């Protein structure tokens, strides 16, 4: 059973990211502030839900949340500052864009940088423990998936509509055959032998 609240503050924000381990595409973060009366429904860690259920819950979260925000950090920035800093930066951008300033921030995972003077708590596997983080995980996942499906139309040989940029055998074999695109993260180990790949 997911918990509604961690702190005693009224405006508690949950934040999470999707796509951190991918070989291609952005890392995407979401931040959500839920109302106290929010019904738990079927919300859970996005990884525990079917794609259909995630899309259904996204609509409900967007309708019922006090406010929410989603932000992509793209490949060039990931390669420049590394994936951990890019993930945290994406979360910060989301919090920046919330209509209400949170009084407390719940973060999925174990690493975060202070955001202004707002207190925060890192929760390992928080998307399976707290509603606001689970809601953020659903938004981050669905918005990123939506983008990867669009990018698939430009480079269908990598099958991003299916693997969403993760390092599946199919994706790695396509890299081996076709090389990399501008959407690939050049700082990542794209193939076991880390070939020199041309754009």
From TrEMBL:
Its main location: cytoplasm. It holds the Pfam family RNase_HII. The keyword RNA-binding does not apply. It is found in: Cytoplasm. SUPFAM superfamilies: Ribonuclease H-like. It catalyses: Endonucleolytic cleavage to 5'-phosphomonoester. Its cofactor is Mn(2+); Mg(2+). One of its GO terms (molecular function) is RNA-DNA hybrid ribonuclease activity. Keywords: Cytoplasm, Endonuclease, Hydrolase, Manganese, Metal-binding, Nuclease. A divalent metal cation binds at residues 16-17, 108. Residues 10-199 form the RNase H type-2 domain. Manganese or magnesium. Binds 1 divalent metal ion per monomer in the absence of substrate. May bind a second metal ion after substrate binding. Gene3D superfamilies: Ribonuclease H-like superfamily/Ribonuclease H. It comes from the Bacteria. Its EC number is 3.1.26.4. Endonuclease that specifically degrades the RNA of RNA-DNA hybrids. Belongs to the RNase HII family. This is Ribonuclease HII. It comes from Salinimicrobium flavum. The lineage of its organism: Bacteria, Pseudomonadati, Bacteroidota, Flavobacteriia, Flavobacteriales.
């Amino acid at each position: 059973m997911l918990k509604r609240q961690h702190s005693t503050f009224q405006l508690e924000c949950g934040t999470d990211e999707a796509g951190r381990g991918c070989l291609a595409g952005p890392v995407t973060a979401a931040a959500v502030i839920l109302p106290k009366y929010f019904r738990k429904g079927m919300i859970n860690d996005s990884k525990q839900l079917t794609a259909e259920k995630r899309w259904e819950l996204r609509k409900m979260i967007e309708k019922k949340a006090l406010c929410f925000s989603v932000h992509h950090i793209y490949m060039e920035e990931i390669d420049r500052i590394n994936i951990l800093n890019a993930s945290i930066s994406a979360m910060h951008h989301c919090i920046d864009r919330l209509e209400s300033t949170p009084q407390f921030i719940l973060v999925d995972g174990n690493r975060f940088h202070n955001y202004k003077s707002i207190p925060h708590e890192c929760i390992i596997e928080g998307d399976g423990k707290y509603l606001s983080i689970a809601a953020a995980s659903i938004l981050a996942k669905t918005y990123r998936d939506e983008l990867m499906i669009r990018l698939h139309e430009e480079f269908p040989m990598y099958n991003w509509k299916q693997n969403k940029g993760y390092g599946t055998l199919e994706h790695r074999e396509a890299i081996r055959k076709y090389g990399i695109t501008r959407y690939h993260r050049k700082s990542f180990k794209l193939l076991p032998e880390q070939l020199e790949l041309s754009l």
